[in-house]
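thought: fold this chain, then report.
action: predict
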Amino acid sequence: MGSFKGHALPGSFFLVVGIWWTGKYSLWRASRRNKNMGSTRLASRTSQRRLEVIESSVVLFFSFVGMLAEQFAADGPRLRLYDSADQHWEQLMNWQHATMYLFFGLAAAVSLVVHTTEAAPLALDRLMLAVAFFNEGFLFFYHLHGRSMLDVHVHQLLLFSVFGGALLAFLEVFHRGNVVLELLRCTLTLLQGSWFWQIGFVLYPPRGPEWDLNDHNNMMFVTMCFSWHLAIAMLVVSALYCTVSCVVRSRLRRTPPMEMGLLKPRDGDPESEDEIL
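observation:
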């Protein structure tokens, strides 16, 4: 990850996941609010599980790709942890980044088990997601020794979004379906993704002059820039939530009465996962 591409890859991953989560939770919220208009099917347990399985499979795949990229890139360790000949560790930065991807892959694997079998409690997927975010922050917290002032600062700002996401995911273990917690997690995930890109531009600018990594004014600017990223993430989540809600309500209003009757749940139709808890 010690390059622009190395920061753009996880940044893109978190941006895509944040947008997906926002759309998914907005859809479920809008569906639950418009049950009397025939939208129950959209928020049914079967539909939710199908989406969760697809999402977990995609996250598991990209986590695997991320681990391979860290190990087998041009300067990767290629699964060598220690060089016994020269007696030194091999590319520990890449190993740490691969470990970050590993935990998100584990969270996705647990989510697959939770939503395809009855072998594990439903809340376990949120708990593992919280562990994955916490592990990411834990690794980055001890990732900064001996670096320049600005390098340390941009990564410390990243920790706010990472540990915030871990806390919110942990709270969802006990308050599943709370749209405020879900949308806050989406916001911090988008913030994390955009900030990874910003770190890439600051530390490894693809073009233009390099940043002075020991200039205090640059530290002041990136701190302000972090606030701008947070504001943009909040606006994106708000816009997506409002758009999805309006689209769902508009489409349901245009649905003919006969089709509305077909959309209403039968007796014994499974409820949403959030309502089961």
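thought: worth noting. The chain has nine helices and two strands.
final: tokens above.
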